[in-house]
Amino acid sequence: MRFAALLTALVLAAAPVRIAAQDAAPKKVDIITPHITDAHALDLPAGLGHGLVQEIELPHWAPLHIGSLELDMSPTKHVVMLLLAATLVIVALTSAARGVAKRAATGRPPTGFSGAMEAMVLYIRNEVILPNVGHHGEAFVPFGLTLFFFILTCNLLGLIPYGSTATGNIAVTATLAIVTFLVIEIAGMKALGAGYINTIIFWPHDMPLVMRIPMSIILSPVELIGKFTKPFALAIRLFANMTAGHIVVLALIGLIFSFGSYVLAPLPLAMAVAIMFLELMVAFLQAFIFTLLASVFIGLVRESHH
User: Fold this and answer.
1) Cα-Cα-Cα-Cα dihedral of 55, 246, 264, 261, to 10°?
2) Residues in CB range of 207: below 8 A, 6 or more apart
3) What is the number of other CB atoms lying within 10 angstroms of the CB of residue 272?
4) Which of 149, 170, 168, 164 is nearest to 284 (CA)?
5) What single-letter DSSP state applies at residue 265?
6) Structural contact between residues 287 and 156, judged by C-beta atoms closer than 8 angstroms
7) Tens-of-pLDDT digits for all 306 residues of the chain?
8) What does the alpha-carbon distance between residue 86 and residue 74 come to, in Å, rounded to a whole number?
9) Considering only CA atoms, which of 93, 111, 89, 90 is closest in space to residue 102?
10) Residue of 276, 22, 30, 248 lying closest to 158 (CA atoms)
């Protein structure tokens, strides 16, 4: 999407000057907000007459009514990107797994795409997930790998022409954080059993009773709040970092329209391209950090009885 905006900016750089000359009240065009918000339309390639971008409306479904609550289940741009990301992850990892198995059957190491994917999977598994989730943590490897590749794919889809970064939507990052929160707490329940209550109610066993009660009253709410600050931090960190990149790039593109000149256009364009290279690194970094923190939080609750 942002590449398409860059191309549009170059083609229309002098447009504000021409419009102003023809019309005393030129029409204002918002080129930033549509790129950082969800919509019921997809951006597809178009000719110069359409500014290189055309919008295709997505189907609208009748809302579901649950009592007084009305739920609009119609697909949106970010929903399409989430489904596309899930499909790409399934196809890529399945193809890589088959390639690795095929090479292993002949006694040869994987090469090419399969080798690259195997190296990435092994790194995330051996250096990120297992060391942090603690002993017998193999059961959490599929979850951690799914988080990493799904978030990475969502991030990268926003860097291709006419794409959109679904992880720039707080609803998406909040859902990922809620799912992670449930995995963390269920992992704690399975590992601690009845001792899981100690992660909610603070009860210092090494203190006299006269100190335990006030300490418990004061610190138990802190323990409870701490459970919810972890997923909150996960959601806000991913959302803020992905949205910030959009805003910076598109604000620089907006300078091209503000200048209204081909002569000054290369400077903000070069700055926008530089930020987009940085965004490529951020896409990998944020997927890595989300997976790392999820693994750390799982490990903390599982080992809290020690």
Assistant:
1) 30
2) 215
3) 22
4) 149
5) T
6) no
7) 555 555 444 444 434 433 334 444 444 555 556 667 888 888 877 766 556 677 888 888 888 888 888 888 888 999 999 999 999 999 999 999 999 998 888 888 888 899 999 999 999 999 999 999 988 889 999 999 999 999 999 999 988 888 888 999 999 999 999 999 999 999 989 888 888 888 888 777 777 777 788 888 888 888 889 889 999 999 999 999 988 888 888 888 878 777 777 787 888 888 888 888 888 999 999 999 999 999 999 998 888 654
8) 19
9) 111
10) 276
Whole-number Å distance between alpha carbons of 237 and 128: 19
> What is the tally of structural domains in the chain?
1
Q: Which token pair is 160?
A: 């291709």
Please identify which residue in the block is written with the tokens 């989300």.
290
Q: Other C-beta atoms within 10 Å of 191: how many?
A: 19
Give the strand pairing for 41-45 and 53-57: antiparallel
Judge residue 80's burial from the number of C-beta atoms within 10 Å of its C-beta, 0-12 exposed, 13-18 middle, 19 or more buried.
middle
Residue keyed to tokens 């190296």: 119
Q: Model-level pTM?
A: 0.84
Domain residues for the domain of 113 are 2-302
